[in-house]
Design brief:
Helices cover about 50% and strands about 25% of the residues. The chain has 2 helices and 5 strands, in the order βββαββα. Strands 1-2-3-5-4 form a 5-stranded antiparallel β-sheet, covered by helices on one side.
């Protein structure tokens, strides 16, 4: 909340708009229990081309601040979050298969080097 006590909340994404001297900064809290650091950091990496951002944390939440905010920023961030959440789920579901493939390839390389 700003020094003026002015906060607006977008109910869809629960973004709070904080009025500061440099302009509007939008903060979004993500529960650590439902949002991994990997998903947020990968999403934010690609957001650097759209707007400047900052990632903080407290005990329960990741706190993301965006320097500027409009529909383009909102939709791009949501798209990236969805994309990386799906990637994270796929990594978990395919982890055993990927490990088996890697082990097989390494055994094959090892046997060729032993010849």
């Amino acid at each position: 909340m700003s020094q003026y006590g002015f906060v607006l909340v977008n109910k869809i994404f629960n973004f709070s708009f904080n009025d500061i001297l440099d302009g509007n900064v939008i903060e979004k809290n993500f529960a650590k229990t439902t949002n991994s650091e990997w998903v947020l950091r990968n999403s934010l990496y690609w957001m650097s081309a759209v707007t400047r951002w900052k990632l903080d944390e407290d005990e329960l939440n990741w706190i993301v601040s965006f320097e500027s905010f409009n529909d383009e920023v909102k939709f791009e961030f949501q798209r990236l979050l969805n994309d990386y959440k799906l990637r994270e789920k796929l990594q978990v579901q395919t982890g055993h298969a990927r490990t088996s493939i890697i082990d097989s390839v390494l055994r094959s390389i090892d046997s060729r080097l032993a010849e």
